[in-house]
Amino acid sequence: MKKIDKLILRSFVGPLVLTFSLSVFVLLMQFVWKYIDDLVGKGLEFSVIAELLLYASATFVPMALPIAVLFASIMTMGNFGEKYELVAMKAGGVSVSRVMLPMTMVVLLLTGVAFYFANNVMPSAMLKYRMTLYDITRKKPAVNIRPGEYYKDIEGYVIRVGEKDQDGRTLHDVVIYDHSKGMTETNVTVAKSGIMQSSADNRYLRFTLHDGYSYIESSTGDNYRRRPLMSIGFSEQTIAFDISSFAFNRSGEDIFKGSYQMMNVVQLDSTVHSLEEKLGGRRDQCRADLMSGFHAWKNIGSMTAVATPPLDNAAQLHNLKRRAYNYAINAASSGIKDAKMYEDLQRGDQEYINRHYIEWQRKYTLSIACLLLFLIGAPFGSIVRKGGLGLPLVASVVFFVLYYVIGMIAEKAVRESAIGPMGMWISSFAMLPIGILLTIEATTDSSLFDATAWQRRFRTLQRFFQKK
Predict the structure, then answer these.
(1) Helix (H) or strand (E) holding 163
(2) What are the boundaries of each domain within the chain?
(3) Reported confidence tier of residue 307, pLDDT bands at 50, 70, 90
């Protein structure tokens, strides 16, 4: 490897790693802010939160790689141009395409890595991520009984504590409302003090109460109208609450394993083939049901053929025509309802199949995006000749947002069957001419983004009109 190649790679890999880390971090922060309410206040262990963030970060890799390649290529070539290193390379007989060659090899390698990650690693990471997030969202907030507030998170009970000591266990002026048996029996327990502690397996929360009373009012059976009230005093009483639902429980992988986001290319192909067969069977069933409704119209003819009344009996003839007319209206209305129902079912089935096609195509489009955005970023950086974080960051955001917005519009069109599955490549086809144009301009030393060159063009144009 030549020294110039080492220089180029060293200048490119550093910003690439830094930008990739920042991209993943930004996407991860967006995820954290979205689910912050589900993570805070539940007493989760740090290992569980770290596991969730790790799986979430893995799902952002296919999107973060194109951003990193785009930003790093603009920054690298812009730094070369700003420091006149690119001019020195050209003076030494090294063309722009030769300068881009080492970076191109790295980007090709990243393209393959991105596809392997999206096809093999990401489905497993997405499965773990969805499963962990589902378990966290199901977990109830940790038991936190505050003084002077009514605590209602334990099903069937309402607890109020007047004061709580600094140890977090000793309570004063405890009131417990028991509604676990419904409206037929109400139990209120009042105690001057008590001790709150969890069992060894954290399944139960025990209240050991001292010096209090229990008031029981029943309205079941013979007591429905009388509603007697019974008062029982105690010096010590223990009440246990089942808090097993507050624990963090792991769900099985079978809940999410059949989702299209958890499949690789081979599995998506097999699933789409099976879904297409089911959709074809449903269409045949729909056609048969609708045709049976049309065949039922023959009953109208048989209705008029049976016991045809005399022509001079106008009342019987009018009654028979009205019956036939009502039968035809009901049959047509029923056929329209059945057709709309089957149309909605088939539209839902087709949208579900399209989601599989979208996921299949996305594994390729996000991988090719690394190479495509590099063909835009590297020539653009060599033309503008500006390094640092200013212009490269702005240009990277503009190009990627343009690519992403076009991709989202195309994805929605594919999902609604407005265009075929190949519509997922519209964003790539839209950005490819930009990359080719910038590459041609960079290799021919174009002054496309040179303000001085544009000023000269405007002056020439101005002199032309002045002469006219």
Answers:
(1) strand 157-164
(2) 3-139+361-467, 150-246, 263-359
(3) very low
